[in-house]
Write a structure and sequence with these properties.
The protein is globular. Helix 4 packs antiparallel against helix 6, helix 11 runs antiparallel to helix 12 (224-250) and helix 13 (253-274) runs antiparallel to helix 14 (284-307). It has helices at 2-9, 11-19, 24-27, 29-58, 68-74, 78-100, 103-106, 112-125, 131-152, 162-186, 192-218, 224-250, 253-274, 284-307. By secondary structure, it is mainly alpha-helical.
C-alpha cells in the first residue's frame, strides 16, 4: 500500500530521478570498462610469464631493474608480446569508457581484473591461495565495487577548465620527480610493493590525463595545454610500464593488478573529486563511503603484498613457475 501511494504521488520516481546522475548512454561506459578489465587480466598474465621466462634465459633477475639484455629478450618473447597487445586493447576499451562516463565511475571497475588474474595465476602457477590472500582480494574488490555503486548515483561529468588542467599538471610534475628519485634509489631492491604503488599512482594520472584530453577533443579545444597533457600522458604511461615490468619480477601478477586496479583508480578518483569536482553534488554520506571503501581496498592491497605466497620471489628463485 505504501509503495503504491509513493508511486501514485511520484515520490519514489522523483527520488530515483534525483539520485541517478548518469544518463543511459553514460552507463555504457561500465560494460566497456569491464571488457577492458578482462583484457588487462590476460595481458598481465602473459606479460608476467614472458618476463619470468626471460629471467631464466638471461640468468639475471629483473627485480633490480630491467637491463638491455632483458629488453632485447622481451621483445622476442611471443607471450610477452601477446600480453602487450592485450594490454593495448585494454587501454582502448578504457579510453572508450572514459569518453562516455565520469572518471570516478568507470576507472574503479577495473578491479574485476584482480579476480580474473587471481584465478588465472592459480591455474598457471599451481600456487594455491590461502584464506588471508582470498580475504585481501575480497577487500579490494568489495571496497572498490561499493565505491563504484555509490559513485554511479552521485557523480557527474564536469568540464575540464584550463585552471584544473594546470593544477593536475603541477601535481603530476611533483609526483614524477618523486617517482624518478624512488626508482633510482630503490631499483636495486626487489620490493614488488614499491613498484606496484609507483605504477598505480602514475597510471592514475594517466587515466586522468586521458579523460581530460578526451573532454577537450570533444569540446574542439586543440590548444597547447591539450598537447602538454598528451605528452604528460605518454611520459606517465612509459614510466608506469617500467615500474610494472619490475614489479612482475619480484611479485605475482595478482599483486601487480591489485596495484593497477585499486591504487590507480583511488588516485584518479581523488583527482576527480578534489580537482575536477565530479562529486560536487554528492551528499556527505557518499563522501564517507568513498573514504571508508578506499581504506578497505588499500588494506586489501597491503594484505596481498604481505600474505601472497609468491610475493618477494623472482622467477630465478622459483623455477617451478
Amino acid at each position: 500500500m505504501t509503495l503504491t501511494l509513493l508511486l501514485a504521488e511520484g515520490g519514489l520516481t522523483n527520488e530515483l530521478a534525483e539520485a541517478v546522475s548518469l544518463n543511459p548512454i553514460q552507463f555504457w561506459g561500465i560494460p566497456l570498462a569491464l571488457v577492458g578489465a578482462a583484457l588487462m587480466s590476460f595481458g598481465a598474465q602473459y606479460q608476467s610469464r614472458g618476463l619470468n621466462k626471460v629471467e631464466r634465459i638471461v640468468g639475471l633477475s629483473a627485480g633490480s631493474g630491467l637491463s638491455f639484455r632483458h629488453v632485447l629478450s622481451l621483445i622476442r618473447r611471443p607471450s610477452w608480446l601477446v600480453g602487450t597487445v592485450l594490454l593495448g586493447l585494454a587501454v582502448l576499451f578504457q579510453i572508450g569508457s572514459l569518453s562516455l562516463a565520469p572518471l570516478i565511475v568507470v576507472q574503479p571497475v577495473g578491479v574485476f581484473a584482480l579476480v580474473i588474474t587471481a584465478v588465472l595465476n592459480t591455474r598457471f602457477s599451481g600456487v594455491r591461495l590461502g584464506k588471508r590472500v582470498k580475504a585481501s582480494i575480497t577487500m579490494c574488490v568489495g571496497g572498490i565495487m561499493l565505491f563504484v555503486f555509490v559513485a554511479a548515483f552521485t557523480a557527474s561529468d564536469r568540464p575540464v577548465t584550463n585552471q584544473k588542467l594546470v593544477a593536475i599538471l603541477l601535481i603530476f610534475a611533483g609526483v614524477l620527480v618523486v617517482a624518478l628519485i624512488a626508482f633510482v634509489l630503490l631499483r636495486h631492491h626487489s620490493v614488488a610493493l614499491i613498484y606496484v604503488v609507483g605504477a598505480g599512482v602514475l597510471y592514475g594520472f594517466v587515466a586522468t590525463f586521458a579523460k581530460a584530453v578526451i573532454g577537450r577533443f570533444q569540446q574542439d579545444q586543440f590548444d597547447w595545454l591539450t598537447w602538454v597533457c598528451v605528452a604528460a600522458l605518454l611520459v606517465g604511461a612509459l614510466l608506469g610500464m617500467v615500474f610494472v615490468q619490475n614489479a612482475y619480477s619480484s611479485g605475482p601478477p595478482d599483486l601487480v593488478i591489485a596495484g593497477l586496479t585499486v591504487i590507480d583508480p583511488l588516485v584518479a578518483v581523488l583527482i576527480g573529486i578534489v580537482v575536477l569536482n565530479e562529486a560536487a553534488g554528492a551528499p556527505i554520506w557518499a563522501v564517507v563511503v568513498f573514504i571508508l571503501t578506499g581504506i578497505i581496498a588499500l588494506v586489501g592491497v597491503l594484505g596481498l603484498a604481505k600474505f601472497h605466497p609468491q610475493s618477494g620471489h623472482s622467477a630465478l628463485e622459483n623455477r617451478s613457475r
